[in-house]
Specification:
The chain is of the alpha+beta class and 214 residues long. The chain has helices spanning 37-45, 50-53, 122-131, 134-153, 159-166, 169-188, 193-207, and strands spanning 11-19, 22-33, 57-59, 66-69, 74-81, 85-92, 95-106, 109-119.
Length: 214
Amino acid sequence: MDYSNPLGIEYRVVEDGEHQGQPVRIVSGARTYDTDIEDLWDAVTNAERIPRWFAPISGELNLGGRYQLEGNAGGKITRCDKPAALDITWEYYDNVSWVTVRLEPDGGGTRLTLQHLMGKDEESEAHWRKYGPGATGVGWELGFLGLGQYLKSGEAVIESDTNIWTASAAGKAFVTNCAEAWGEAHIESGEDPGVAKAMAAETAAFYCGQQQEH
């Protein structure tokens, strides 16, 4: 795979909101892909195509069904309106959050907007105070990147190749730039610049396998 000019998310937003009557933090990312809406919908919902750019998946991929990503989250599909809207729960160990995906035509391509909604329980808040939006955001950046590479080449993004790349100098530069970009989005949302930059540095260190000194 060619990662010489990687691109993850194009537009980033950090905001507070409400979900099911409870306050949440929302991390949003969007990118326009050079394909039609039907193809992009199939790429993000088809059990045979998802492993080519994201991770192996199992389960019943239909409304009300449950899915499980290998080595990652599982959950329930709560909305599935082809080819425009997908909502899922994101269950990782005992933590439950929510993810929404929206597709819409954008010029000659299709814009994908993903929102990850996280509750403000004690555990989630402790994680947020250390890493801010970048911990979630950078993870999705890698997914957006893999999807873009897959759609461009038509070839599967090999997991071992991706892991080797993220441990390389180029991969570390990519995740560091993404973490800093999420720090800037955090500042735009009203966070203190010093706090946001410190969180971004913690996120970059985590993804680069480095321990921050305090």
